[in-house]
Amino acid sequence: MYQWRKFEFFEEKAAGRGGGGGSSSSAAAVPAEIAGRVTCCSGGRGRVAVGCDDGTVGLLDRGFRLSYGFQAHASSVLFLQQLKQKNVLVTVGDDDQSSSQSSAICLKVFDLDKVQEEGSSTTAPFCVQILRVFTDQFPQAKITSFMVLEEAPPILLITIGLDNGFIYCIKGDIARERITRFKLQVEAAPDGSASLPITGIGFRVEGQAHQLFAVTPSSVSLFSLHVQPPRRQTLDQIGCQTNAVAMSDRMDLIIGRPEAVYFYEVDGRGPCWAFDGEKKFVGWFRGYLLCIIEDQRTHKGTLNIYDLKNRLIAHSMPVGDVSHLVCEWGYIILIMADKKILCIGEKDMESKLDMLFKKNLYTVAINLVQSQQADPASTAEVLRKYGDHLYGKQEYDEAMSQYIHTIGHLEPSYVIQKFLDAKRIYNLTNYLEKLHDRGLASKDHTTLLLNCYTKLKDVEKLNDFIKDEDGIGEIKFDVETAIRVCRAAGYHEHAMFVAKKAGRHELYLKILLEDLGRYDEALQYISSLEANQAGLTVKEYGKILVEHRPAETVEILLRLCTDVGDPTTRRGSNSMHLLMIPSPMDFVNIFVHSPQYLMEFLENYIKAVKDSPAQTEIHNTLLELYISNDLSFPSISQENGFENHNIKETEGKETANGYGYESGTKEKANVGKEDTKLSKNIVDRRRKGLALLKSAWTSEMEDPLYDVDLALILCNTHAFKDGLLFLYEKLKLYKEVISCYKQAHDHQGLIACCKKLGDSSQGGDPSLWGDLLKYFGELGEDCSTEVKEVLTYIEKEDVVPPIVVLQTLSKNPCLTLSVVKDYIARKLEQESKLIEEDRKSIDKYQEETELMKREIEDLKTNAKVFQLSKCTACTFTLDLPAVHFMCMHSFHLRCLGDNEKECPECAPEYRSVMEAKQKLEQNARDHDLFFRQLRGSKDGFSVIADYFSKGIVSKTTVPPENGR
């Protein structure tokens, strides 16, 4: 025992103040209200119950004050136990019965939640049941031990150990007296004498298995109560005296003997701890073994508190004559024979650690916090201090082993800063590796570790860290940081491995393209990726690929955008897969310096895909490429740069040799070839542009496949006449078409355009001839031939009055009268004929009008004689009653029927006339119809005259406003 270190991890508490901290020179005492000698005690549910030899039971609070006391038994309380699950107190005591036929020993169950009044000064809990311990089947003997097991409330298992080696068991609902009794017997003494007393009892519960330890002075037995009948087995042939039996928190039996303390499990004896001295009391408190050992020479007791896990004595102090030991409120409570109470509490962890740190007992401190299951932060703090201690002693390897255990709780920078010295780079590398293994490394830690590897030139460790057992397992570091450091140190293969394993394709390609320049390998890698990933990587590094491998890049883009490489996923026009394929417009920006390959890419795409969602943007982009004047081709740019460089060198040499003139001649020749080639390219592109304008807006299409406004702006900006003419014609902007020819001073084109667009029978605009005539009239040069041709079509279509023709052409001083002489003569002759015909019509209408007037006057002034003798309807002789009409028709009244106000013969003609009149009046109110006829007629005046001639306009009345 002298090898065990002694510490003062416990201290005596001021029990009189409720155990609240600090030591006290004067111990507490059992309250004076408890007059009898304390025979038993029990803790539980925040109170300590003490039983006395006068039959009273007192309940003490945390300050060891009497909460209340009551008379439990008449004579003496032998044993008691407070239950944990229910606020119930079970007692065994002597009631001094006068009858000699029944035993005086009774078992009582008190419900502490139900307190009944007994007078004005005392209170007593309600006694729910009283049982006789001894009966005829269970003979009386001296009780030596007592324990209650709460199986499942209200079911209790009460065990009573006797001095004759028997254990009486009472099981069931004690309050309702639904119980069963049975007894257990340990084996007789080895020498054949009477059985030895039961000195200790302990329960072990594992699920449904209930086992009972029974201790005598010479044996340890185990009863299996879940087996019927209960099975007994002897665990050992040694025992102990009363009060030297306890149960650990792992439900192991503990017995104390003079030579040692023994632990027992269900299969026999377990650990044995050799502590000399008579064990008056044995207990268990929060993982500590409690032993009150009596010195045989001085007969003084000593309380030793053992930490068995760490092999140390947590506390040792002399105590007097202890009668009872109980644990409650987190304290060890000793009740002395003189009724004094000693309360011993454990110091807090910080105090214990400070004590150990002052003695540099860091190993003990670590074991202590680990055995008491302290929080990880506290454990890490102890490890840190131990590491600091070792570091101060320059034991760097041992210090690092402690710091490694603090990972996850101690800030890594604290450790890293200590080992940044280059001499300790190996320790720092070890620490950083552990950080990464536990997934707690940051980007900076990864950078530092990789720098350590590169500084040490330890390629093997770098491979292990980067490749992680040939790529098996998850990456435990920041990918981007590892790649950045490896690239900076020149370990490109390692950086590529990390990028590929992490699926960071863009970083993998960045290394291939920017660091290694392996463009073919990069293209092959992109081809192996899925469509989405390949699209993202091409967007990122497409400019570099187009610059060095343009044709191959275009081929990859076509596969991505058209699905030509995978026939199983080739889309249809109505497939949803269409929306999942990258759009060509997503890759336009990578051709910013290579528009020729962009043009090639888009041309091949529209050949392969006819129903792209982005076809409008594609056609717009192609039009811009076709129509622009300053498209720079990479091949020409490179060729120019190469040739110009050679030219400068050659020029310098030849000038030095006196041949400067010849050099200049060659340079001019080269520039001329380049200009010719560039002009040819512009012509070819514009030819493609015009073809695209026409193919993307055919006559069958209602809307074009490009933005018309953008196309107009492009054609106008780059003076693309053919494109403008096509667009104006498709948009029916005929006057703008004419304007284009006017600006070009193309007279024949003007006339041909008017022939095509001015034909009203084909939906053209005849007013174009008037604009053309006005143009020639204001031209200021001799254009007689063109004017004559124009006049021929104007006369044919009759779109411009002759007076307007004369007024327009008179503005051109270069035109003579001979140009319009024939035209005017023909027009005058036509007008004369029309005038003559109009005069004849006027005379005819005037004669008819006069005749109608005379008839109307005659009807108004003269009598009408009706001489018809036959009915017009039935042709029979006319008799009365008869009806005569002013139209000279006569009818029988019976032949007219209900229609006797109008002539049946003349009514249809009259009705048609009235309907026509009503229709004309209705048309007079239809302003839209009037203006449509006015706009659609060649001669608007004739339309207005026609309305007046029919009396429509003159008879139209305007309703008064506001009823006035």
TrEMBL record:
The keyword Coiled coil applies. One of its GO terms (cellular component) is plant-type vacuole membrane. This is Vacuolar protein sorting-associated protein 11 homolog. Its main location: membrane. Core component of at least two putative endosomal tethering complexes, the homotypic fusion and vacuole protein sorting (HOPS) complex and the class C core vacuole/endosome tethering (CORVET) complex. Belongs to the VPS11 family. Residues 871-906 form the RING-type domain. It holds the Pfam family VPS11_C. Keywords: Coiled coil, Membrane, Metal-binding, Vacuole, Zinc, Zinc-finger. One of its GO terms (molecular function) is zinc ion binding. PROSITE patterns: CHCR, ZF_RING_2. It is a peripheral membrane protein. CHCR repeats lie at residues 403-554, 572-785. Involved in regulating membrane fusion at the tonoplast and the prevacuolar compartment. It is found in: Endomembrane system; Vacuole membrane; Prevacuolar compartment membrane. The keyword Zinc applies.
